[in-house]
């Protein structure tokens, strides 16, 4: 299926899903709506399982081949340092923007939230950040176990070590590199077949959510949701604007190219679902395979800017709702804490809520305030996922440009590619 046709079908699935979900919620019994939501979600589960089936072999094959083709440790260190620098800058901007907007708009004022106990938020337990916990989570004891659990950070660490080792042994590594290169192309072809199920998946996910929760959820929490989506919109403008300044007007061609994977991430609330498509669109844009396959997997562990903006926005929102004032110093401290904890929670289920819970406990804000987020979090997760996809794509393009790659008409200069 052609890219434009697939995008059209995904949008059509989204619209039909909203209509069907609204009709079921409005004209059927709550029991039927709940049953429908439970049964139709099987399509979403199947699609996300198919995507997860692809992720591990795709990351290993593309990342290892990318590192092996870089040639030497000096080049790898240079690219990695540039990638890390960009991701730290993006994290700082996103968390700071969340703090600034929530302080200006004050969506939590006047709610006067009081909860008797924190037991209403079962399943969301704060996990304190520590270097020991982070390193223990990042280093795999078994690559097979990491692949089985789709631990992206652990897979990335293993792939980096494997890629460096293959690069070090030179010609003897070529057979393995060739096999992994073929595996990467195989996984991308397989992705094309899996993506044929995307429109049905979007319909199922949206209709299930609306049928059970109703559009009233969006209306009642509309102010909070609207202000957070305004924050995401501003974040998009800042990141795209910086990219235009550093790369050129061709950035707009990149944004248009990744609109399909970003839309898929939005409708399925899964950044993982968009990984293969984003990798393919980056290469079509002109980012070399060695850069795209190196930067993108790392971004999925360290550059979740949509989620980081949400964490800072949500923590201050809950504090406002509980009538708790945080000084400027405390908010600066919170920014620094979130810079760390948002990295330490990679791979944790419902990671944003876990990070928020951990941050609330450190500032003596009632964890029961998470109740205010539970009803609308699935809708907000859609925007966070799409933003994560967009920021990772821009990050890969910036690193490529920094390495001397040129993306055609509309880019600054006519730079020569580096020889790796």
TrEMBL record:
Record's bilayer topology term: Multi-pass membrane protein
Domain of life: Bacteria
Keywords assigned by UniProt, alphabetized: Cell membrane, Membrane, Transmembrane, Transmembrane helix, Transport
TM region positions: 7-27, 47-71, 83-105, 152-169, 190-208, 228-248, 291-318
A Pfam family this chain is assigned to: SDF
InterPro entries according to UniProt: Na-dicarboxylate_symporter, Na:dicarbo_symporter_sf
Subcellular compartments: Cell membrane
Protein name, per record: Dicarboxylate symporter family protein
The organism's taxonomic lineage, starting at the top: Bacteria, Pseudomonadati, Pseudomonadota, Gammaproteobacteria, Enterobacterales
